[in-house]
Automatic annotation (TrEMBL):
<dbReference type="InterPro" id="IPR036950">
    <property type="entry name" value="PBP_transglycosylase"/>
</dbReference>
<feature type="domain" description="Penicillin-binding protein transpeptidase">
    <location>
        <begin position="347"/>
        <end position="581"/>
    </location>
</feature>
<dbReference type="InterPro" id="IPR001460">
    <property type="entry name" value="PCN-bd_Tpept"/>
</dbReference>
<dbReference type="InterPro" id="IPR012338">
    <property type="entry name" value="Beta-lactam/transpept-like"/>
</dbReference>
<keyword id="KW-0328">Glycosyltransferase</keyword>
<keyword id="KW-0573">Peptidoglycan synthesis</keyword>
<dbReference type="InterPro" id="IPR001264">
    <property type="entry name" value="Glyco_trans_51"/>
</dbReference>
<dbReference type="InterPro" id="IPR050396">
    <property type="entry name" value="Glycosyltr_51/Transpeptidase"/>
</dbReference>
<keyword id="KW-0472">Membrane</keyword>
<dbReference type="InterPro" id="IPR023346">
    <property type="entry name" value="Lysozyme-like_dom_sf"/>
</dbReference>
<keyword id="KW-0961">Cell wall biogenesis/degradation</keyword>
<keyword id="KW-0808">Transferase</keyword>
<keyword id="KW-0121">Carboxypeptidase</keyword>
<feature type="domain" description="Glycosyl transferase family 51">
    <location>
        <begin position="60"/>
        <end position="235"/>
    </location>
</feature>
<dbReference type="Pfam" id="PF00912">
    <property type="entry name" value="Transgly"/>
</dbReference>
<keyword id="KW-0645">Protease</keyword>
<keyword id="KW-0378">Hydrolase</keyword>
Length: 617
């Protein structure tokens, strides 16, 4: 009994002390403003809540909801259904629009009720105090925390309107299962927006935040239903619903329609996250910082960039992409169909070259989101697939030769570099056409040497291959001998030049990034470069056409307005490539193992060609 009396007296003293504190602060305002006193003890900066972001395909269909720990769809006050507001006001804080963040009568009433029952039967926190607790404080039931809560609530009421406080509150409350705010709760539990909910559904959801675990609709729906009926009673008491509405809502059978997070096409979505980082880096100066920063500082700059990207995503954005779901699915299916061994990997990239858009990209077999992505993160030697870009086109551009001009296809040796044709064969004098379509090696090295390494690389440098290094400037590069090599995305992008009259322009998956109201935030700028003239380009298209119709790429051939491409095989069959053009699409396919080893056992089947054919069919 004495312990209960002591608790009661302590509680009364807390209330009295709170009143005295506020009154004292008002008196002090004559000498020092209340605001300045609060600023010394209560630090509240502008409140920004995270909200979900969204990614769409080329048809405007949602392909990925982007959020991490908090699934929230932020609603402004005007967008919140009135019945949601009425439900929380009726049950949590009926004097919300009258008090200044704390409610003395509620505090006194709650302490009396709890004292009589010797338990916590009734709370005394206003909506503002609950918002403060959710945003700034812990949920510990201590007098220190309660006093801090009162101070924060008092200041919050000075900073924001009642409507804004309600807006923040309804968007912060927790509905269990990772869901925050009424709109995300509505989508999660009923698969529809909150403005389409019935009164019964609204009050059912509004039951959850009081004790999210106890009222979890997925596990404890009976508890949720009991709380819902209590909320309906309080709304009837507050006269925000009438008797008919009350009876109808009480009798309505609640059927959940739980939705799952939309997250399709992990290969493409992962690439778009990477591209978004690149886009923000370019537009906001991080790219320049990374280029100029000393090696020991690059990691710090990258961390700042990553934090900035995360902040942009948490603000809520729409990412409109060029994804073609049909081509993406075909790419994935073709790889699964044509590769018999589970340890052999592959990546495919498909670009719509008239628009310079990446419409499909795969990360590997059985790809999981944010895993190592072989489409843009795997850099491998390109083998003979580099010849059109580094050897033949520069040679034709510099020397003005025809496709029927002759070149020696016998053994070649210079400064201890002595490459051989496949199988060690010698072919004598052959035409450029014959040399390329059959992928002879020695003619390629000869014309590369004749054009000059530096001259040829001046053409290649315009493609912006990110891992080409000074050590690559040598004769072995003519056959794909690079230190790091190229990614499938980079090599495929370079080949679009042949389909674009000799003009190169980087291809992207992101069309534009907007805020949730449709205002454009980021777009790529077009930066076309003329690599070689139309005459050279036309000759190259003719050479590439012969590769597919008569040469090493015949298995990829199919009827089309135009078709052409080039195969590539690295030493010991570690990597096999085919990059080609058909009508309006340029596609590249790489096949290999993550830990390089021979693919000779499957080479003759031509899986790289069959995958490409299946995608482009």
């Amino acid at each position: 009994m004495r312990m209960g009396t002591g608790l009661f007296i302590t509680a009364i003293l807390l209330v009295v002390f709170s009143f005295m504190l506020i009154n004292t602060m008002n008196e002090m305002s004559k000498v020092q403003s209340i605001q300045s006193v609060l600023d010394e003890h209560v630090d509240i900066k502008e409140i920004h809540l995270s909200t979900n972001s969204y990614m769409y395909d080329r048809h405007g269909k949602l392909i990925s909801e982007v959020y991490q720990s908090e699934n929230r769809i932020y609603l402004s006050f005007s967008e919140i259904p009135q019945m949601v507001i009425d439900a929380f006001i009726a049950t949590e804080d009926r004097r919300f629009f009258d008090h200044k963040g704390y409610d003395p009568s509620s505090i006194a009433r709650a302490f009396l009720t709890n004292y009589k029952t010797n338990s916590i039967e009734e709370g005394a926190s206003t909506v503002t105090q609950q918002l403060v607790r959710n945003l700034f404080l812990t949920h510990d039931q201590t007098y220190d925390r309660k006093l801090s809560e009162l101070l924060y609530a008092y200041k919050l009421e000075q900073m924001y309107s009642k409507e804004k406080i309600l807006e923040l509150y309804i968007n912060t409350i927790f509905f269990h299962n990772g869901v925050y705010g009424i709109e995300a709760a509505s989508h999660y539990y009923f698969s529809k927006p909150s403005n389409e909910l019935t009164l019964a559904q609204i009050t059912f959801l509004c039951a959850v935040p009081n004790n999210p675990s106890h009222y979890n609709p997925l596990k404890n729906s009976e508890n949720t239903k009991l709380r819902q009926q209590w909320i309906l009673e309080k709304m009837l008491e507050a006269q925000v619903i009438d008797k008919d509405e009350y009876e109808k809502a009480r009798a309505e059978n609640i059927q959940l329609a739980v939705s799952t997070k939309i997250d399709l096409y992990p290969d493409y979505v992962t690439y778009i996250h990477h591209e978004l980082t690149q886009l923000i880096a370019q537009k906001e100066g991080y790219q320049q910082q990374l280029q100029n920063a000393p090696a020991e500082s690059k990691q710090a700059v990258q961390q700042k960039l990553d934090q900035r990207v995360q902040k942009v995503l948490e603000q809520g954005i729409r990412i409109e992409t060029a994804l073609d779901p049909d081509i993406q699915r075909k790419s994935m299916q073709a790889i699964e169909k044509q590769l018999p061994n589970n340890d052999i990997q592959s990546s495919a990239v498909v670009i719509h070259h008239p628009t310079n858009e990446v419409v499909a990209i795969t990360g590997g077999r059985n790809y999981k989101k944010f895993d190592f992505h072989r489409g843009f993160q795997a850099f491998r030697q390109p083998g003979s697939a580099i010849k059109p870009l580094l050897v033949y086109a520069p040679y034709i551009a510099e020397h003005g030769v025809s496709n029927q001009s002759s070149i020696n296809a016998d053994h070649f040796c210079k400064k201890n570099y002595c490459p051989k044709n496949f199988g060690g064969a010698q072919y004598g004098s052959v035409t450029l056409e014959t040399a390329l379509k059959n992928s002879y090696n020695t003619p390629a090295v000869r014309i590369f040497d004749r054009t000059g390494v530096d001259t040829s690389f001046r053409y290649l440098d315009k493609f912006g291959f990110s891992r080409v290094v000074p050590n690559d400037y040598g004769l072995p590069a003519a056959l794909g001998g690079f230190t790091h090599g190229m990614s499938p995305l980079e090599l495929t992008q370079a080949y679009t030049t042949f389909a674009s009259d000799g003009v190169y322009q980087r291809s992207y998956g992101i069309r534009r990034v907007t805020d949730l109201k449709g205002n454009v935030l980021y777009e790529w700028n077009e930066a076309p470069q003329h690599i070689w003239n139309s005459s050279v380009n036309q000759q190259m298209k003719s050479l590439l056409h012969k590769v597919v119709t008569e040469g090493t790429g015949k298995k990829a051939n199919q009827p089309s307005t135009y078709i052409g491409g080039k195969t590539g095989t690295t030493n010991a069959f570690h990597d096999i490539w085919f990059v080609g053009i058909r009508d309006e699409y340029t596609a590249g396919v790489w096949v290999g193992r993550d830990k390089p080893s021979s693919l000779q056992s499957i080479y003759n089947r031509g899986p790289h060609l069959l995958i490409w054919r299946d995608i482009m069919r």
